């Protein structure tokens, strides 16, 4: 079997119809942002009264400041205003968090699966009962529209629920021995302390997707959330405490990313690193884990192709491409990065797609009807600008948008650019912003070649009404996830992860459990 076929672990299919760190500090603050400040204050006071606005790290069940008292500011990306200060932790705090997790592992790993399942279920119930506050917190520190943020809470919670159930289904194996008087058993046991390093684009879900299976297997964790969005992580940890999860099982440190990372990597007590983030940092962690030979799971960047064939249903393709591209303002690793359209449908698709993009309302995440919030920070906007400048200089045309939004700050206009070529920066690297580049192709072979011409291999999308083509192309695509006539492909029940330089390992689903388990062989002899 070819790599591409082996790699295919999750394919979301909708049958063809015919067949069945620093935010922009731009000031002064506008009237709009004054209005937003009011919202932020209301949200903050609600969160404080529900005990969810935590601003300290969690070590061994105790809320803790940085030992030297240093703090970092957390900003609202929609306004640039400071929401809270959190501790700027480093090596010492991380070492203590690891020790706490190691101590807690002794007892947590010996609980029964049924007990761990109950704790996780209680955590899930609490997350769901605080869905609104958690959603507001995500909007406040990350910027995505409230509806989308609430969607993230449901999605994030689903991993805790799923793995609460999956905890009970860790089976071993009995193997036929080559000797008559021997019995061979395979036992699955938790790997130990896990270091979980997460990004800012899904402040809750990237944590639950790692911590859910880790706890279900009997591991304990030290979480390092992104410094841009630590408040959601701390709120989730507070709810873990409220759920009765024993002290030390869940620890959270944040601050100096490389100090914390180095402490996690250097410790022989940490047996596994699970990471979601940039390919550059992922490679560093993978190299650093070699020193103590840790297990590593990496969910890194993508460069998702979204292929629209002549025989696609236009409405389905437009809707799917819109969802795949503009979710979270284009700031997800599975966002369509290149929309590759066959020449027969190119003009029709470009018109219909641009019309749909034009309807996306940009604004503050707390405002009604908003589909696109701000980008996370000024650096993100500058990256988008540089990619567009490069594309235009090489012949691309702006169909829609192409500039900062009149709201200012880090708001950017939903953008469509046409006549994009493979050699442009925007085709080669993840833009991580609300820009849809359209590329044109003639034949199926050419589409596959363009799609695979990248070092990434996370998500791909294709739109066609031919079932034969959907199988043929999806098997030829070197991507871990393929959406067929579908733009939203993440779910807790299917394995999520990439091939090539998009990562190692799978998250979610029954396969996600194996990442936190060691397989031990035991031999039993009949001899007395
Ligand atoms: P992004 O571009 O999504 O911010 P990063 O890879 O920079 O991606 O960040 C993802 C996570 O990795 C964040 O929590 C960040 O603080 C953390 N991180 C960044 N550098 C390091 C490092 N050297 N060691 C450990 N963690 C790091």
Automatic annotation (TrEMBL):
How does it associate, per the subunit comment?
Answer: Homotetramer.
Q: Can you cite a GO biological process for this protein?
A: gamma-aminobutyric acid catabolic process
Q: Report the EC number(s), separated by commas if there are several.
A: 1.2.1.24
Provide the family line.
Belongs to the aldehyde dehydrogenase family.
Protein name per the record: Succinate-semialdehyde dehydrogenase
Q: Where do the Aldehyde dehydrogenase domain residues begin and end?
A: 64-518
Q: Which UniProt keywords apply?
A: Mitochondrion, NAD, Oxidoreductase
Q: Which InterPro entries does the entry link to? A: Ald_DH/histidinol_DH (IPR016161), Ald_DH_C (IPR016163), Ald_DH_CS_CYS (IPR016160), Ald_DH_CS_GLU (IPR029510), Ald_DH_N (IPR016162), Aldehyde_DH_dom (IPR015590), Aldehyde_DH_Superfamily (IPR050740), Succ_semiAld_DH (IPR010102)
Q: Which organism is it from?
A: Rhamnella rubrinervis
MF terms in GO: succinate-semialdehyde dehydrogenase (NAD+) activity
């Amino acid at each position: 079997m070819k790599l591409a076929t082996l790699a295919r672990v999750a394919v979301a299919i909708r049958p063809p119809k015919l067949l069945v760190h620093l935010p922009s500090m731009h000031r002064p603050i506008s009237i709009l942002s004054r209005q937003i400040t009011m919202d932020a204050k209301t949200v903050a006071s609600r969160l404080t009264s529900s005990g969810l606005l935590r601003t300290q790290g969690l070590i061994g069940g105790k809320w803790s400041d940085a030992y030297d008292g240093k703090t970092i500011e957390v900003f609202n990306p929609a306004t640039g205003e400071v929401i809270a200060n959190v501790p700027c932790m480093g090596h010492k705090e991380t070492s203590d968090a690891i020790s706490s997790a190691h101590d807690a592992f002794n007892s947590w790993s010996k609980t029964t699966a049924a007990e761990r399942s109950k704790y996780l279920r209680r955590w899930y119930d609490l997350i769901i009962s605080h869905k609104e506050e958690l959603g507001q917190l995500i909007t406040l520190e990350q910027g995505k529209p409230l509806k989308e943020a609430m969607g993230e809470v449901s999605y994030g919670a689903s991993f805790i629920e799923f793995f609460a159930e999956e905890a009970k289904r860790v089976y071993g194996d009995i193997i036929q021995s080559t000797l008559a008087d021997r019995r061979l058993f395979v036992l699955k046991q938790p790997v130990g302390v896990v270091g979980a390093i997460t990004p800012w684009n899904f402040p809750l879900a990237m944590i639950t997707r790692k911590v859910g299976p880790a706890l279900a297997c009997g591991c304990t964790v030290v979480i390092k959330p992104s410094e841009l969005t630590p408040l959601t992580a701390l709120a989730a940890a507070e709810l873990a405490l409220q759920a009765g999860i024993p002290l030390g099982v869940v620890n959270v440190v944040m601050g100096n990313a490389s100090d914390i990372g180095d402490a996690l990597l250097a410790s022989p007590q940490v047996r596994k690193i699970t990471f979601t983030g940039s390919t550059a940092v992922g490679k560093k962690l993978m190299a650093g884990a070699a020193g103590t030979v840790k297990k590593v799971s990496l969910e890194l960047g993508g460069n998702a192709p979204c292929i629209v064939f002549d025989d696609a249903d236009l409405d389905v393709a437009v809707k799917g491409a819109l969802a795949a591209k503009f979710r979270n303002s284009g700031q997800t690793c599975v966002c369509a990065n290149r929309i590759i359209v066959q020449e027969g449908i190119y003009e029709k698709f470009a018109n219909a797609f641009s019309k749909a993009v034009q309807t996306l309302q940009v604004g503050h995440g707390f405002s009604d009807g908003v589909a696109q919030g701000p980008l996370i920070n000024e650096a993100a906007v500058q990256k988008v600008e540089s990619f567009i400048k490069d594309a235009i200089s090489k012949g691309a045309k702006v169909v829609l948008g192409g500039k900062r939004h009149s709201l200012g700050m880090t708001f950017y206009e939903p953008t469509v650019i046409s006549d994009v070529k493979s050699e442009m920066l925007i085709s080669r690297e993840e833009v991580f912003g609300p820009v849809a580049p359209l590329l044109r192709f003639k034949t199926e072979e050419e589409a596959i070649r363009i799609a695979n011409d990248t070092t990434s291999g996370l998500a791909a999308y294709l739109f066609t009404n031919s079932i034969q083509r959907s199988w043929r192309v999806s098997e030829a695509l070197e991507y871990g996830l393929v959406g067929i006539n579908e733009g939203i492909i993440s779910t807790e029940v299917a394995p999520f992860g990439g091939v090539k330089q998009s990562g190692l390992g799978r998250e979610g689903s029954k396969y996600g459990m194996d990442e936190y388990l060691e397989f031990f062989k035991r031999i039993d002899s009949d001899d007395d």
